[in-house]
Amino acid sequence: MAETKMTLVSRLFAQHGGALQAFLYRRVRTHSDAAELAQEVYLRMLRIADMETIRNPEAYLYTVASNLAKEHARRTRMDGEALDVDDPLVQEQLAELPALATELDTEQRIKRLREVLQQLPPKCHAAVVMQYWHGLRYEEIAQRLGVSTHMVKKYLSQGLMHCRRRMARLG
Fold first, then answer.
1. Would you tell me which of 85, 91, 124, 139 could form a disulfide with 155, CB atoms 3.0–4.6 Å apart?
2. Which CATH entry fits the domain spanning 88-168: 3.30.70.2190, 3.10.20.310, 1.10.10.10, 3.90.550.10?
3. Could you state, in chain order, the average pLDDT of each consecutive group of 10 residues for the chain (171 residues)?
4. Rounded to 5°, angle at Cα 41 from 40 and 45
């Protein structure tokens, strides 16, 4: 008797969950994004109408993961390209946190923001902290991180977009 879809997907998750997240992490470079993409892989596996048509479920699992990682990279690249961190209007909008539910007080928002910031890669996290907590200019941040000012702008753009997406999920 063939495995049911749920049994097969559960078995794949049990056998490949850690390896799949590591596979995705190597491509997206943030643990939280890798975990979200891994969940999406399993959701997509559950949506398959006829699992019998898949000859090698393990290979298919990683093919789906690879495609999701490519989609994620394309989305991230488009988000970064669409954002000009030098534009004063963009600076003003990015500096404001999205409106959160009234039951969340300031202390909870700060705690959540710290958690979200910890999800950033180290240099991206450092650039955001130096810019918004310490008020350093791009040139100063670039010098401290040992990168170009262009890279600082890229770190800030990525960091702020990440924070906005993660913080918006609370609202």
1. 124
2. 1.10.10.10
3. 74 88 86 87 86 86 89 75 62 54 58 83 89 87 91 89 77 50
4. 115
Q: Take residue 53 and report the two structure tokens written for it.
A: 């048509």
Rounded CA separation 31/37 (Å): 10
Give burial (CB, 10 Å; 0-12/13-18/19+) of 124. buried
CATH number belonging to the domain at 5-81, selected among 3.40.50, 1.10.1060, 3.30.910, 1.10.1740: 1.10.1740
d(CA 90, CA 126): 20
The pLDDT of residue 103 is 44
